[in-house]
Write a structure and sequence with these properties.
Blueprint lengths: L2 E7 L3 H13 L4 E8 L2 H10 L4 E5 L7 H10 L5 E6 L4 H9 L4 E4 L3 H13 L4 E2 L20 H12 L3 H11 L4 H8 L3 H15 L4 H10 L5
Parallel strand pairs: 1-2, 1-3, 3-4, 4-5, 5-6
């Protein structure tokens, strides 16, 4: 089993201990917590010296918050797979964290139930959002209404990149963390059809993996 180096950036010792326990109990991967940073500055200093496979990141930290750290890491090309764990239920934070390179967003209150699934998705190169995280545009379970003006932005995106309505539906379910089988069941189509839709979107948007596909959708404001 390959060892994966993990940096935890969080200034709440009890929560950090809980994360370590979950990592140690994971059966598919061997996670090794190589550093615990109490501030964003500490995390940045470590990553400038030593790359890691995974960053577990709190948004609220002294000296440099998580969003600023993501911005700096992206600018310096020090990015790694990142899972954001936050206590703040704010759709704007979700959107900004994902746009700046995070691969997953969980609420701390649900971390014990969702982190294992998030780890599997992120290490497979996918995007993961917690079950109760409101993705702007899709909402919790895709049920919340879009903000005023979002339809105009969305239609511009669809026209420019020739994304079909069905492809958009598949994309929104991908962002919610569903796999091909689950998407197929949800939309009453075959897994092969889901696979084709996914590949077609990646071709149209000129991206090489699912994480890049979702980030491109954020960049182009399809998921506002």
């Amino acid at each position: 089993m390959k060892r994966l180096d993990v940096l935890i950036a969080d200034d709440h010792p009890i929560f950090v201990l809980g994360l370590q326990t979950i990592l140690q109990q994971h059966s598919e991967f061997s996670f090794d917590v190589v550093q615990i940073a109490r501030t964003g500055k500490e995390a940045l200093e470590y990553l400038q010296q030593q790359p890691v496979d995974l960053l577990l990141l709190d948004l609220s930290m002294p000296e440099m918050d998580g969003l600023e750290l993501l911005k700096v890491l992206r600018r310096k090309r020090l990015g790694c797979k990142t899972i954001v764990l936050s206590m703040y239920n704010n759709p704007k934070l979700v959107k900004l964290a994902m746009k700046r390179g995070s691969s997953a967003f969980l609420y701390k209150s649900n971390a014990s139930d969702e982190l294992a699934r998030a780890l599997e998705a992120v290490m497979a190169g996918d995007i993961f959002l917690g079950d109760t995280v409101w993705l702007p545009g899709a909402g919790v379970s895709g049920q919340r209404k879009r903000r005023s003006g979002a339809n105009h932005l969305e239609e511009g995106f669809l026209a420019k990149y020739r994304i079909t309505k069905r492809e958009r539906e598949v994309l929104q379910l991908i962002v919610q963390g569903l796999n091909n089988r689950e998407i197929a069941d949800h939309l009453f189509i075959s897994e092969q059809t889901v696979h084709v839709h996914r590949k077609n979107m990646m071709r149209k948007l000129d991206v090489g993996n699912t994480a890049s596909l979702v980030r491109m959708a954020y960049e182009c404001q399809l998921l506002l």
